[in-house]
Amino acid sequence: MPRALILAAGRGERLRPLTDRTPKPLLAAGGRPLIEWQVESLAGAGFRELVVNHAHLGEQIEAALGDGSRFGVRIRYSPESPALETAGGVARALALLGAEPFVVVSGDIHTGFDFATLVQRIEAIARQPREAIAHLVLVPNPPWHAAGDMALSEGRVRMQGPRLTYGNIAVFHPEPFRALAPGARLKLFPWMYRFVEEGRVTGECYEGPWDNVGTAEQLAALDRRLSR
Asked: Which fold does the domain 3-227 belong to in CATH?
């Protein structure tokens, strides 16, 4: 059964004061918390085992989502104090994610991406981890990140070429995260770039609806669009 980790430990500094009393993933757009959109999308794609990491006001996230039964899933939690960044957060949650590849998605994005399409990626990485240790979903560069992050060529993520933006959706094999020291505070990039250079990261470009909510203006714009 495929598993997924929803990243919900960020402080949301650019969204203050909204995030002073409400964790960023619980900010509402279209009448519901951002993280609920992710939970429902994953549930609809057949993911029944979810892990949510949290730090800032994490008890509110647990209270809001509960055990996941109302969404048709089981949710377990990986608390952090302090927040460990993306790679560190994944490493901490490994005991809950199991030995097979898993999906990782940020709790503060909104997208129409079909997570069911990642099941084949999970299976491929499980079969041949030496060929691919990760699969990244990239998106066209938004105006606020025009320089992009990395390139895509023949289904492989590259450092050279026209760049796209990391869409905060990925499949990872647990192997590289096992090497991290317990409690390590580490961002996903540039740490992951070593595997890109080795040619072990596949990728795709998703051109459908995708929003990364980082400011109050972006949240308001998404809310207006979803509420129409």
From this structure: Spore Coat Polysaccharide Biosynthesis Protein SpsA; Chain A (3.90.550)
